[in-house]
Amino acid sequence: MNKLKSLSMMTILITSLLPFVAATVTIAAMDQEQPPLVQLMAKPGGGGSGQVADWGYVRIGADLARAATSGSVQVAVIDTGVDFDHPDLAGVVTWCYSAIARTEGCGTRDTNDDQGHGSHVIGTIAALDNNQDSVGIAAGHVEIYSIKALGRRGGDWGDLNHAIRMASDGPDGVRGTADDAEVISMSLGGDISNYPTIIADLQAAVDYATSNGVAVIASAGNEGQCSDAPNTRMSWPAASNGVVGVGATGLYQPDMSGWATEWTGAELDVMPCFSNNADYVDISAPGVYITATKNGGGTTDMSGTSMAAPHVAALVALLMANGFSASQAMARIYSTAIDMGYASTLQGAGLINAAAAV
Questions:
Q1: What are the boundaries of each domain within the chain?
Q2: What topology does CATH give the domain 53-357?
Q3: Catalytic machinery residues
């Protein structure tokens, strides 16, 4: 394989994590030809007859925001596909496309989620409010386009660019029509600092979407300044112009004894050290131990900036459903964010506040 081809096939990686202890996470050193490996974090979750309102949903006031929303929009989730048979997801996923195989159709081998990450992200945004499993932040106000651009080991940057353009065009393949996605959510990324051609091609795809009025949201990455990861890496597409880069927040017990998984108002909002510290971080959202739909049914918990990005995408969707443009929605989100006292390169404008924004 020649070098040009090998660079075009560089892996895009999913921005969620393996289980971490306290506020630290180990990031493995990678070969310079590859973006840093970011692995998934998943532990068994609930499910059954009850419905879980995740702490992030409660913390940002999603119930109030949903109640104040009247319309509906299309949100494209570019990820590992979707478990179309999950009872909390099948009712909200209206189009499935594989940017890898260049095929469409929900419930097919090409578009199914063979990893679990995409199903969790989609559930965070849109899981049905139906007294089982979890509930999405924008439940009842979104249709989901599941666009598969990643497999078990990541994906190709060319496939990602194709996915962004397909999301902007919508199922009819025609830009500027009613079925175009209003929001694109990407919980993925990689460091392509040394590859200007790949950066330029990605920027062209992002520009194609944003010039059509699409809000483009991406996770900021998990290469932050933990004790064993002292050097912050860049992460695209979050670093692309016009993309909203999202950092992750968590809840700490008032006595700082460990992470909390329920919000009562007494917990502390904190930035876990894995969340990237960079000038492209625009806003932050819950991303530690987030409960959402699990591949195969039920729910599971995951952590990472992967989990934070769909919180922001869902909030943007609620605002756009109420008639805001993409830029108006982000201005509103920035102006109502909760300042947690961190540098702007860590928290951006702060923690999203859906209740105040909508």
A1: 53-357
A2: Rossmann fold (3.40.50)
A3: 79, 117, 306
